[in-house]
Design a protein that fits this description.
The chain folds into 2 domains: about 80 residues; about 55 residues. It starts with 9 loop residues before the first helix and ends with a helix. It is an alpha+beta fold. The chain is built from 4 helices and 5 strands. Strand 2 and strand 3 form a beta hairpin. The mean pLDDT is about 90.
Amino acid sequence: MSKLINVYASPELRQTLDEALPGVFSRLGYTENYTLIDTKLIIGYSIALLAGVSFLLDKKLDFQESLTYQKLLVAGNLVLSVVFWYYTKFVLRDVKYVGKSKSSEIKVSTRLEKNDFKYDVMLVKGPNSCVKCVLPANEVFTEAGYLQADLLYQWFQQQLKKA
C-alpha cells in the first residue's frame, strides 16, 4: 500500500506520481538509465571543483600571483554554469525517467500544472515514436489519497501500446 497524500495538493500529487515511475517501468521490463543525471552531477561537481581550486589559490598565493589564475577560473566557472543552466533547462526539461529494455529505450517527461489535476505525460520511445497523453489523477488515486499502483501500471501499459 502506498502512503497517504493530499490529492488536492498538486506538488504532493506530482511527487508521488514521479516517484512511482521507476517501479512501474521496472514491471514493464525497463531498467533505469542514469546517464542524464550523471552528466548533471559531473557538471555540478566540476563547478564545485573550480571553486575549491580558486579558494586554495587565494589562500596559498598573493593577490598579484593568483590574479591570472583567478580570472581563468572565474571564466571556467562561468562557462560551466551556463552549460549547467542550458542542460537543466533544455535537455533535462521535465524528464523524470529514462529507461532501457532489450528492444527499446524510453524517455518519460511529466508535467502537472499548479491547481490542475491532470498529469501530462510524454512518452518518447525511440527516435520516431512520441505519445502525449493526460492522466487524470482521480483514475489512479483513491478518494482517501492512496496511489493504486496497479491502475497506474495498467495505464502506462496501455499508453506504451500506442507508442
